[in-house]
Amino acid sequence: MRRVRRFRFLALLLCMGSAQAVTGYGLAAPALMPQPVFYQPQPGSLALTGGVRVVWQGARPALLDRAVARFSHRLAMLSARDAAPGQSAGLTLRIRCVNADPAMLSIHMKEHYHLQTDAEGATLVADGPAGVLRGLSTLLQLVERHDSGPVLDAAVIDDSPRFAWRGVMVDVSRHFMSVAALERQLDMMELTRLNVVHLHLSDGQGFRVESRLYPRLQQVASHGEYYTQRQIRALVAYAADRGIRVVPEFDAPGHSYAVLQAYPQYAAQPVTTPMDPKRVVRAAMDPSNPQTYVFLARLYHEMAGLFPDAYFHVGGDEVRPDEWTGNPHIAAFMKRHGHADVAALQAVFTQRVYAMLAREGKVMMGWDELIDAPVPASIVIEPWRGSRYTVAAAAAGHPVVVSAGYYLDLLLPAAEYYRVDPLDPQGNGLPPDQVARANAPALDAFTLDPAARMTPELAGHVMGAEAPLWTEIVTEEMLDARLWPRCAALAERFWSPASVRDETSLALRLPVVQSELELLGNRATADTHRMMARLAPDDTTPLSVLLSVTSPVRNYAHNHVFGPSHVAPTPIPRPLDRAADIATPDSFEAAAFARDVRAYLAGRHDLAAGLRARLENWRGNDARLRDMAAGDPALREVLPASALLAQLAQAGLDALDDTPAGSWRARADAAVGMARAQFDASRSLLRVRTMPQPAGDLLQETMPAIALLVQATDQPH
Ligand code: ACM
């Protein structure tokens, strides 16, 4: 029998503090993510013994030579065999790039590829260079570790993306991210066939690109953290090598506090230095001042020259009406020109910006507030306040890139995002009570047709989707773990056919894919271990055991900005060094435990010992953590979560023992009930505003499986 151990060992290590092996049943095929359109496993495999010999046919732009060098290096990292070209070749890789593809790095780039692997080697035929890149990423996912050593699985694959725009948005304004950190994310994106990085380069907290025309932007508005023009060019080239487009965003007229600190003459209301935390999310440019447009046109001209992509994002979100109406000059301007409301005034602003970007040859893109009043239909709209805006924007003729439903900073687990389809009919995506990210204006019901539904014709407007990560509470050290593995799940949502929706399969593949990404440079586990070592320098194990089965509270409860524990933003960012900053939204350990519990309840009684060992470890962990916290106040806030984990573990043990119903059952129900109520308290943005959150901001990921074990004792057997 063929045994496949494909990186399960590492996947096991990723389950921090695991006392038991992850039971690997259910994953018979390689963990491909995104799942290809057509995949047919073939008998046999090719032993990976060393180098790669490439046989080229067709177009061979220089970027493909670099791509093959990267591939060889990655193959070596995955297989622990020196795969440098020129080594005695273990793998013959035939590449035929049919066309040099003049549309490369545009929305129309050719990403289709056909891949065949067998005992003789691999053959990759692609319509263009992008297809070669995508095929090489899939080829790496066919590497398996057999008992005899690393092999390449035999398969026939034919694949192309469902959506042309498959993006990740990183907010580098709230927390600056170094070039190295961004390059690492670009590598991960290449490996999962994502193809757009949208950089949110300007917001209240900072402007992040060197400007030669307006140097106060980096001198005053960046707090010393910005990308030089040379760095931007290098980053764009780095992305281009990986078939990834860079779409810059310079948010205006709102979210512009930092810019207005540098150039206060364009502000609608006075802007102060040092930063006034209450005004950071409010300050807006003055749309009645002709000089504002001169400034923006020159700035956008300079920035357009740095970013070669055809698309240019200008934000346009969350303008606070009173920033404009509260200024008598602007109020008079509105009256004089007959602008009935702020949306109408913003439409004028949008028109001006549209014209200046058209002169630059750029396609304008902005958040869904832009359609609160009619604007040119060629503007790309990015719905974020709900999927109903996808329908509204498409119905108004706009191209659409969907981000509603994909806000990674809501800290939901991968499956919740995976469930949301970019073409979901109205009502999915963010529910109506979740529209406000930062006290956003209420939904403007007037622009929305309540009967609107997604139709095939409207769906034709949707170019794709993006996963945004806003970084109010994400430092560079947290970036990998906050993006991955959830972005891999979304890469599949955006690439694979809509029918690929199996969350059980996703859950089995995700740890394997994450372990591969970590072998290839992703730092999620390394970073979380470093953060734990800082919090618990003597011994990270007890904290690691707790955090392996807890996740942070959701829907911005951990931001402490919108919730009951309202903490006003401060100019000095809150340190992001708490347990909930380390805990990840997906617990592989809890997911594996839940799989084993379900299998056990379905008759796999051989799993009982493994379940018991894990439960005993969780129960015993509490005393160890309490001992440590006695001498370390920083750890104390996790003790209630640790105590609840111990109570849940005890409930699971009692259920396994099936002690005749007695006092254990009441205690078990109480523990499960409390853990469930804690999930409930951050189930939506609305709840977060009104419900107290658990101490330490931690949720018990073991709860659903423990509840199953407890309930099962009700069944006669
Ligand atoms: C946004 O989240 N304000 C686009």
Task: Lay out the secondary structure.
Blueprint: H1 8-14, E1 38-47, E2 51-58, H2 62-79, E3 89-97, E4 113-118, E5 121-126, H3 129-141, E6 143-146, E7 149-159, E8 165-171, H4 179-191, E9 196-203, E10 206-207, H5 216-219, H6 229-241, E11 245-250, H7 257-262, H8 290-306, E12 311-313, H9 321-325, H10 328-337, H11 342-359, E13 363-367, E14 380-382, H12 388-395, E15 400-402, H13 414-418, H14 456-459, E16 462-469, H15 476-483, H16 486-495, H17 503-519, H18 524-535, H19 541-547, E17 550-552, H20 579-582, H21 588-601, H22 608-630, H23 639-657, H24 663-681, H25 685-690, E18 698-700, H26 703-712
Parallel strand pairs: 2-3, 3-5, 8-9, 8-16, 9-11, 12-13, 13-14, 15-16
Antiparallel strand pairs: 1-7, 4-5, 4-7, 6-7, 9-10, 17-18
Helix pairs in contact: 1-17, 2-3, 4-6, 8-11, 15-18, 19-22, 21-26, 22-23, 23-24, 23-26, 24-26
Bound molecules: acetamide.
The site of acetamide has 5 residues, from loops.
Briefly, what is this?
Helices cover 40% and strands 15% of the residues. It starts with 7 loop residues before the first helix and ends in a 5-residue tail after the last helix.
Number of domains: 3
Q: How far is the first residue's CA from the last residue's CA? A: 35 Å
Helix content: 40-55%
Shape field? globular
The CATH architecture of the largest domain is Alpha-Beta Barrel
Oligomer: single chain
| Structural class designation | alpha/beta
Secondary structure tally: strands: 18
Proportion of residues in β-strands: 5-15%
CATH superfamily label of the largest domain:
Glycosidases
At the first level of CATH, the class of the largest domain is Alpha Beta
The CATH topology of the largest domain comes to TIM Barrel
What molecules are bound to this protein? acetamide
Give average pLDDT, whole number: 90
